[in-house]
Amino acid sequence: MSYELQGKLIEKFDTQQVSEKFKKREFVVEKRETTGGREFVDTIKFQLTQDRCDLIDPYKTGEEVKVNFNIKGNRWEGNGRVNYFTNLDVWKIERVSSDNPDEQMQKSNDSNKPPMPDNNDMPPLDDQDDDLPF
Asked: The whole model's pTM is what?
């Protein structure tokens, strides 16, 4: 199952070579939400693995990003103890436009309108045939 989250990129970490065959890179996104007049802030750590480790490179801290990810869970057993881990494995990152929603809506509406004719494309009025009956 795939999930999506939008927020501000607040930290990027270096790639870690965990084993000969496995590497990962982590980054943190801050998600703010206002409910009932109160603001809640979550800082969420995501993980990129293998050939996806460089997906975060084009983004700068402070930018708004949209992250698509899967939730993965693992069981680990060692020293007579069992532990469980949950990872948010990212498969896609997108930059979120910094325009305000009203401007985005206006741009969207403008792009759906046909272009207005240029006055230079129309013949002068006195050159037109006047075949109207009145």
From this structure: 0.68
